[in-house]
Amino acid sequence: MNVVTPAPQGTVGVLALQGAFHAHVSVLSELGARTREVRTPDDLAGVNALVMPGGESTTMGYLLGTAELYDPIQRRLDTGMPVFGTCAGMILLASKVLDGRVGQRGFGAIDIAVRRNGYGRQVDSFERDIEVVGLDDPYHAVFIRAPKVESVGADVTVLAMDDGVPVLARQGSVLVASFHPELTDDHRLHAMFLRIVHTATATAA
Ligand code: GLN
After folding, report:
1. Strands 157-162, 11-15: pairing kind
2. What separation in Å is there between the alpha carbon of 178 and the centre of ligand 1?
3. Ligand 1: which of 17, 114, 116 to mutate, judged by most atoms within 8 Å of the beta carbon?
4. Is the CB of 57 under 6 A from ligand 1?
5. DSSP readout, 134-145?
6. What is the biggest distance separating any 2 CA atoms in the chain, rounded to whole angstroms?
7. Which of 88, 126, 129, 133 could form a disulfide with 159 if both were Cys (CB 3.0 to 4.6 A apart)?
8. Are 16 and 40 in contact (CB under 8 A)?
9. Residue 20: CB within 6 Å of ligand 1?
10. Long-range contact list for 73-80, CB < 8 A, 24+ apart?
11. What are the structural domains, with CATH classification, of the chain?
12. Is the shortest distance between the CB of 144 and ligand 1 below 6 Å?
């Protein structure tokens, strides 16, 4: 179920401090992208785009601090680096986090309010077929202790909803999903991100 995607110019980084980063690297590689695991500011300097994986946003936030990656990533986001945040990655990119840890810092890269673990304990994990704008067939989405989007700003395009709740959204070069697109063999959302990277890179060149 893959679509042919032009290989983007440059390298797609995957934040590799914690969480489900390995699967993202595999998917991007299968789609023909050059990838690099990002653990240091030097790694970040060598990439043109970044994936922020699922995992635990509070732990990732802590590790971003110790790795001294917060400010460099913020600067890159402020200057238009394309980014794809999934689950915990979406939390890190949101402008507002509800039920976050006290002092939990985020990048404010997309104008959404998300509630950590917002689907509650009784549905820690669930799977749904969702309709995605721009895809012909439904997409099978795997949610794991997912953040729940509670509001989106006017500049945000909602690309998919589940039960009336946005689960995939985009603002400029920022793409976020509250589920785990790296855990199935349907790579269409990574392909969508690579098209965003390709467009951004072509524009910047
Ligand atoms: N509940 C996690 C958090 O708050 C996110 C879960 C996930 O990434 N699968 O960061």
Report:
1. unpaired
2. 9
3. 116
4. yes
5. T-SS-EEEEEES
6. 48
7. 133
8. no
9. no
10. 73/44, 73/107, 74/107, 76/44, 76/50, 77/107, 77/109, 77/174, 80/172, 80/173, 80/200, 80/204
11. 12-204 (3.40.50.880)
12. yes
Total residue length of the chain: 205
Query: Rounded to an integer, what is the distance from CA 183 to the centroid of its chain?
Result: 13
Q: By alpha-carbon position, which residue is closest to atom 8 of ligand 1?
A: 54
CA–centroid distance, residue 204 to ligand 1 (Å): 33
Lowest mean pLDDT among 6-10, 24-28, 113-117, 184-188: 6-10
* pTM of the complete model: 0.94
88 CB less than 6 Å from ligand 1?
A: yes
Tell me the catalytic residues. 87, 180, 182
Q: What type of residue sits at position 180?
A: H
Is residue 91 a contact partner of residue 100, using CB atoms and an 8 Å limit? Answer: yes
pLDDT in tens, 130-177: 999 999 999 999 999 999 999 999 999 999 999 999 999 999 999 999
